Amino acid sequence: EYNPTQPSSYNLNELPMHKEEDYLETISKLATASSKQQCIKITKETEVSHLPLCAASQAFIHPTFFPMDPFHLFYKNCMAHIWDIWITSSNSTERMHVPENKACQFGETIVAAMKTLPPAFCGPVRDPFLKRNSQYKVYEWMALLHWYILPIGMELGFDAMILANFSHFVSAIEFVMSIKACSEHEVASLHVTVQKFLLEFESLYWIISTYCLLILGMTEIFGSFCPENITRSHLCVFQLIHIAMHIKWNGSIRISSQATVERSIGEVGHKIRSNKAPFANLANIITEKELLRVLKLYYPTLVVDSILLPGQIPRQPAYNFKEHKLIQNIGISRKDIEKMSVLHEIEAVKQINMIPTQYQWKDGEKYNFPMVMHYAQTGEGDSKKIIFGEATAFYEFKIDNICKKSVIVYRKLTNVIQTLNQTTGKWNDNQIYVMEVTNIIDIVGIWESKNGSGNVYVLRKHPGTAFLTTEELGAGTE
Hints:
The chain has helices at 20-31, 36-46, 70-89, 100-113, 128-131, 138-156, 160-177, 184-206, 235-238, 243-250, 258-269, 278-298, 334-337; strands spanning 207-215, 218-225, 330-332, 343-345, 359-360, 366-367, 370-376, 384-399, 403-419, 422-427, 432-436, 440-443, 445-448, 456-459. It is α+β, with helices and mostly antiparallel strands. A hairpin with a 7-residue loop joins strand 7 (370-376) and strand 8. Helix 3 crosses helix 6 (138-156), helix 7 (160-177) packs antiparallel against helix 8 and helix 8 runs antiparallel to helix 10 (243-250).
């Protein structure tokens, strides 16, 4: 009815692809079109509007020359679009709709959750229910996607099928934005995950009056199809099906980010001063910038941060968490902690760039940041295991008054499970644990449910934030 020339269905594993010959033929038709109306008709049929400047490059090959931009596609487009469907574009009869009172509660919970998110992760995340249309930043959409929607949604009672579908989207984005090599098998698994998300998205967001049937772990959704809901499948959502192909063509999706390109364009653009020859001025600025970068690689002492001012104390080298030493953890009770006279609290821990014991917040509250640690599990195989704990204090352990060891006293997160790929557990307040400081891997954030469940969700810093500058992460903002 709406697209009579299109096939009734597609095989997501064998989608028809544009070819360079067809693309160039379309460009020729646009160039020889006799009227503006004919150009509009060609564009409507082919979605090609004109010849881009980048086609002048000898490396131009269609369609592989146009890589995805992860920050705009995943966060500013897809994440924002899904949120808008939940809040504004749906009605109370649809399962994906979030009522106003629950959306308001979600936003208030986000603001309160900032107390347990390390400032090193990003700046404060605003209430999306109130501030969605107030230039919501990309790092805020990243925080919602990677850290908060699934944990808070589960605790507030969002629709289970909608959250399960959204978890496929999160899994796919976290995989492609992570810094690691991937095999062809992993790329194929990614494609399966994206397919599952899209097929469920179509069923959940297009069909009204739905009811579901679970058969052997597969979800079958029944109901009446609403043609008007097809507008919810924006191009940004369907574009996800091409992620696996783009990885095969261009490598990691991270390298095609426009964020770094736009930042460089902005920085260079502000430095152009010549009105007579702006492009020559631009070429000189870029050349000078690259020469300085190469010089800094050859001579690191030229870096401003490495030059000490008069009276300035040299910065202590950051602790290398990768060079960790594995030991068995030592479990002690609260009664035994008073007998540990050999432990002496020291201030020297702060001099090796360790995480501080407590962080002073502006409202006077203190919070001990949780962190990721691991230990060598004794027994057959001595397998490595990841544990999560909250630092209580740092101490120095003296042996025969000669050998010293820095240790951490912490409480442990127990009953750790994965729910919709979210790490959750409960604090063990009945026992205190001690471990060598060298076993600390990294700092993490948490979100602790206040509805009585006692669930604690672990928030790991995501590699996607590494592409953003300090200003883009909202550091120093209120």
